Amino acid sequence: MTKIVGTLGPKSRTVDIISGCLNAGMSVARFDFSWGDVEYHQETLENLKAAVKSTRKLCAIMLDTVGPELQVVNRTEHPISLQADASVVLTPDQDKEASSNLLPINFTGLSKAVKKGDTIFIGQYLFTGSETTSVWLEVTEVNGEDVVCLIKNSATLGGPLYTLHVSQIRINLPTLTDKDKEVISSWGVRNNIDILSLSYTRHAEDVRHAREFLSKLGDLHQTQIFAKIENIEGLTHFDEILQEADGIILSRGNLGIDLPPEKVFLFQKAAVYKCNMAGKPAVVTRVVDSMTDNLRPTRAEATDVANAVLDGSDAILLGAETLRGLYPVETISIVGRICAEAEKVFNQDLYFKKATKYVGEPMTHLESIASSAVRAAIKVKASVIICFTSTGKAARLISKYRPTMPVISVVIPRLKTNQLRWTFTGAFEARQSLIVSGLFPILADPQHAAESTNATNESVLKVALDHGKAIGAIKPHDRIVVCQKVGDSSVVKILELED
């Protein structure tokens, strides 16, 4: 029921491996633009399309922006060794060569943003916590545009780019950079991205700005925006950001650096709870870092995945583990198995009471229908809930009450015209629910569109039931709860299958 977002990259971009990832349970593919060019990601995406065709599994596309990410540029690509207690200078002069005592960075304003005593982290792989590939610096003096630092631990940085993070300091750069806008308006538009992951979201205004930008790009006005919370500033404005965004990604790699480690779990629990009550997907990152190189997670990581599910997370996002990890398919499979075990002991009863109490009374018409459908399904021990929807909103509301059984969301295509041509919408809505806990979308046949908005059409229900049987969710004599619109009213009905 918990969804898995996999980042595609060097170790996970062939049709075979992507097919393996889809079969293992990946339902959203993330494209991280902080490395690799547009052509590289386009090739990967074409392979994803081929894999989707051959496995017949739907997959949503997530574009992850770079945002105001500070980077150290190592043009030589030779590993750089940094020794504890030595000094290193960070300079905005990118013409200089990176060495053990000089690191060129892509930002001219660092000297104005930091002061003596501030902490700076530089990570080869964005802070896995591995002390050998990330270094901790303390600012000792600011010299013009250069920042002189004391190295606190010995480490070796390899490769052309490292990420630089200044703890608890605001970096005065736009959240949606010019480079991001260029990628979205070319690659994003061409591929009709389903979800935009907005890195380093710090204010609700960041989400509004991104939405305004997307609204001018054809079909991308339908793209959902997930705010990625990566620092103290994003935490401080969390409530307003949650109101504006379609979902939240908790980027624990960076948060673990901006926050004291002992506070990360507290924020995670509070943030996931707020997302749950708002009925918006919560996605947790950095769960099984050790599987980048190993076939099994540590016991602590396995517990961490289970706790993320018990806290109410909708999806688990895998980054380095699938991007450059040695075992992308196995990682998805193991994370999926841990999630399934945790779901068995999820306290649905307590959760349901909390959710209904939070909504309060009087409930809106839709909330009332969604919560009734879930309550009925649990009382009659239904094997699935089938929900007819055109926008996906009704299905997401049902998921908000965390039913213990899958929700088959039948997306009814709507016919739209711009005076020149008729088009069906629905594919976006179907794919976007692939990041929501427990939702399994299918797209109804457009020829049903006219009658099915009233969902009186039995053939659409038959398609949903056949799909449920095919995936093993529905067996003879099962009970099914159906949530549908009849005329202007919404109806919840219970069906008992004969065979």
Quick structural overview:
Its cofactor is K(+). With 499 residues, the chain is of the alpha/beta class.
List key phrases describing it.
eight-stranded parallel barrel; seven-stranded mixed β-sheet; 499 residues; 3 domains; elongated; alpha/beta; Pyruvate Kinase, Chain: A, domain 1; TIM Barrel; 18 helices; M1 Pyruvate Kinase, Domain 3
Outline the structure in words.
Pathway: Carbohydrate degradation; glycolysis; pyruvate from D-glyceraldehyde 3-phosphate: step 5/5. Belongs to the pyruvate kinase family. This protein is an alpha/beta fold. The chain has 3 domains: 3-68 and 175-344, TIM Barrel; 70-167, PK beta-barrel domain-like (M1 Pyruvate Kinase, Domain 3, Beta Barrel), CATH 2.40.33; 348-497, Pyruvate kinase, C-terminal domain (Pyruvate Kinase, Chain: A, domain 1). Helices cover 37% and strands 25% of the residues. The protein has an 8-stranded parallel β-barrel, surrounded by 7 helices. The protein has a 7-stranded mixed beta sheet with strand order 4-12-8-9-10-6-7, with helices on one face. Helix 10 crosses helix 12. The chain is elongated, with a radius of gyration of 24 Å. The two termini are 26 Å apart. Mean pLDDT is 89; it is low at 449-456.
